[in-house]
UniProtKB/TrEMBL annotation, chain A:
<feature type="binding site">
    <location>
        <position position="106"/>
    </location>
    <ligand>
        <name>carbamoyl phosphate</name>
    </ligand>
</feature>
<protein>
    <recommendedName>
        <fullName>Aspartate carbamoyltransferase</fullName>
        <ecNumber>2.1.3.2</ecNumber>
    </recommendedName>
</protein>
<dbReference type="InterPro" id="IPR006130">
    <property type="entry name" value="Asp/Orn_carbamoylTrfase"/>
</dbReference>
<feature type="binding site">
    <location>
        <position position="56"/>
    </location>
    <ligand>
        <name>carbamoyl phosphate</name>
    </ligand>
</feature>
<dbReference type="GO" id="GO:0005829">
    <property type="term" value="C:cytosol"/>
</dbReference>
<feature type="domain" description="Aspartate/ornithine carbamoyltransferase carbamoyl-P binding">
    <location>
        <begin position="3"/>
        <end position="147"/>
    </location>
</feature>
<feature type="binding site">
    <location>
        <position position="261"/>
    </location>
    <ligand>
        <name>carbamoyl phosphate</name>
    </ligand>
</feature>
<dbReference type="GO" id="GO:0004070">
    <property type="term" value="F:aspartate carbamoyltransferase activity"/>
</dbReference>
<feature type="domain" description="Aspartate/ornithine carbamoyltransferase Asp/Orn-binding">
    <location>
        <begin position="154"/>
        <end position="298"/>
    </location>
</feature>
<dbReference type="InterPro" id="IPR036901">
    <property type="entry name" value="Asp/Orn_carbamoylTrfase_sf"/>
</dbReference>
<feature type="binding site">
    <location>
        <position position="260"/>
    </location>
    <ligand>
        <name>carbamoyl phosphate</name>
    </ligand>
</feature>
<dbReference type="GO" id="GO:0006207">
    <property type="term" value="P:'de novo' pyrimidine nucleobase biosynthetic process"/>
</dbReference>
<comment type="similarity">
    <text>Belongs to the aspartate/ornithine carbamoyltransferase superfamily. ATCase family.</text>
</comment>
<comment type="pathway">
    <text>Pyrimidine metabolism; UMP biosynthesis via de novo pathway; (S)-dihydroorotate from bicarbonate: step 2/3.</text>
</comment>
<dbReference type="InterPro" id="IPR006132">
    <property type="entry name" value="Asp/Orn_carbamoyltranf_P-bd"/>
</dbReference>
<dbReference type="GO" id="GO:0006520">
    <property type="term" value="P:amino acid metabolic process"/>
</dbReference>
<comment type="subunit">
    <text>Heterododecamer (2C3:3R2) of six catalytic PyrB chains organized as two trimers (C3), and six regulatory PyrI chains organized as three dimers (R2).</text>
</comment>
Length: 302, 190
């Protein structure tokens, strides 16, 4: 197994499948029972180093580490000496001195986890860096697809929205490619990066719906709505929003995903979000299992 | 260092400890012992420890059914997450864990494994079992006891005791996994 999870490309098909299989066993194992805690990482320390606010991701990692009995230290940049100008390297050396076995890092700068991995002995897990990647989100998306549809190889996955700024989309393209799914990116031309490899690009959502097994809606950030990436929120919603009518054009078995938090009525209508096809709540639960699997496999042995 | 031919052969091909008929006979005997010791296998559930404890547990249940017509539930208990040597070795893939619908509370649990060695796997299994519920009692059935215990653990049902050196290894093959039943002893300094 690898030592760090800095980006989706760190995983080959074998390791990615091992993580998904492990997550499935962990989900089964802790699912219906009273004692949800496992002693596996007792005595290990996991630091959540969050330079950006992300309550969901942080709680998910925290729950995962705690279910494996690791000690968890939450370090948020706000109100710490980071806001007084401490560099990432100095923070890393502090964590090193404290004996952190794993550092889960969320950072506004793309590539921060790569830098951090050079400075600490423990494992580094990327929990989102800039507009670069968010590999555990891609893993939990892949896990959710596999649980719902039974396979990944050969699936047609359509990712819709602000691909340009989306680390979730970037990690998904890489990971799904590794696992044999076919990805189509859909969005306004202003929000589709030009350097895309191993994914198809389309600007017409309605055209790709009938052949999609999975439609993954991306969150539209409020700052993009006011910037000039597209004329108006209303037009975006009309062209790229997932509503009931579009959902009914999908194949019978198709699912609709969203990494959350949603803009209800913007990229996804309440009718879709609350339908049985939507996997949004499952994705959250699966996130904990997948992160447990990642922590176990990175920290379980040396 | 060159080994004498005969010794070299033994290192490579192993020395047979149990043939397939003997494995069957041993399983039958343990099944009878379980029936006797549990007074007709009441309130009892078998838990196989992956990998080879699982087919062994299923065989015991099948034999008990053949002898007395009793359906004994069989579960699977993966102990990987409870091992105490996790940080010493590369992370290993998890096996399945399957608990019969009745759970373990108040039941007599019989753990089934192929080889009893240091006792650490059994210790991990006891911890894992503790997280599933509270069995009334726990017993242990193994096909082979090779000695060298590192913990105060002993088996209730032993197929065969094999005195071994630490440098030797015992390999159990079962038809369900390996295509044939056999127990062999490998290695040693010869």
């Amino acid at each position: 197994m690898i030592r760090h999870l800095r980006e989706a490309a760190d995983l080959d098909a074998e390791n990615a499948t091992l993580i998904l299989d492990t997550a499935r066993e962990l989900a089964r194992l802790t699912g219906g029972r009273e004692v949800k805690k496992l002693p596996t990482l007792r005595g290990r320390t996991v630091v959540n180093l969050f330079y950006e606010d992300s309550t969901r991701t942080r709680i998910s990692f925290e729950a995962a580490a705690k279910r494996l009995s690791a000690d968890v230290i939450n370090f948020s940049a706000k109100g710490s000496s980071v806001s007084k100008g401490e560099s990432l390297k100095d923070t890393a050396l502090t964590l090193q001195a404290m004996g952190a076995d794993a550092v889960v890092i969320r950072h506004g700068a793309s590539g921060a986890p790569h830098r951090l991995a050079n400075w600490v002995d423990g494992s580094v897990v990327n929990a989102g860096d800039g507009t670069h990647e968010h590999p555990t989100q891609a893993l939990l998306d892949a896990f959710t697809m596999r649980e719902r549809l039974g396979r990944l190889a050969g699936l047609n996955v359509t990712i819709v929205g602000d691909v340009l700024h989306s680390r979730v989309a970037r990690s998904n393209v890489v990971l799904l490619g590794t696992l044999g799914a076919k990805v189509t990116l859909v969005g306004p031309p202003t929000l589709i990066p030009v350097d895309i490899t191993n994914a198809e690009v389309s600007y017409d959502l309605d055209a790709v719906l009938p052949a999609s097994d999975v439609v993954m809606m991306l969150r539209v950030q409020h700052e993009r709505m006011s910037a000039s990436y597209f004329p108006s929120a209303r037009e975006y919603s009309r062209r790229y929003g997932m509503d009931g009518a579009r959902m009914r054009r999908l194949p019978e078995h198709a699912i609709v995903m969203h990494p959350g938090p949603m803009n209800r009525g913007m990229e996804i209508s309440p009718e879709v979000a609350d339908s049985p096809r939507s996997t949004i709540v499952e994705q959250v639960a699966n996130g904990v299992s997948v992160r447990m699997a990642v922590l176990y496999l990175l920290l379980g042995g040396k | 260092m060159a080994l004498p031919d005969a010794a070299h052969d033994q290192v490579r091909t192993g020395k047979s400890i149990l043939t397939d008929t003997e494995v069957h006979r041993v399983v039958d005997r343990i099944a009878h012992q379980i029936l006797e010791k549990t007074e007709g296998a009441r309130d009892t559930v078998l838990f196989g420890i992956p990998t080879r404890g699982v087919p062994l547990a299923r065989r015991l249940a099948a034999r008990i059914h053949a002898f007395e017509g009793i359906e004994m539930p069989v579960g699977i208990l993966d102990v990987t997450l409870y091992r105490d040597d996790l940080r010493l070795k590369a992370a290993r893939a998890l096996g399945p864990t399957d608990v019969p619908p009745g759970g373990v509370d108040g039941l007599r649990v019989i753990l089934v494994d192929d080889v009893l060695f240091s006792g650490r796997t059994v210790r991990a299994a006891l911890d894992a079992l503790g997280d599933l519920g509270r069995p009334a009692s726990v017993q242990l059935a193994v096909l082979v006891d090779r000695g060298h215990r590192e913990l105060p653990i002993r088996a209730d049902y032993v197929g065969k005791n094999i005195p071994t050196a630490l440098s030797e290894s015992v390999r159990v093959s079962l038809a369900e996994i390996d295509g044939a039943d056999e127990v062999k002893l490998y290695g040693g300094d010869a």
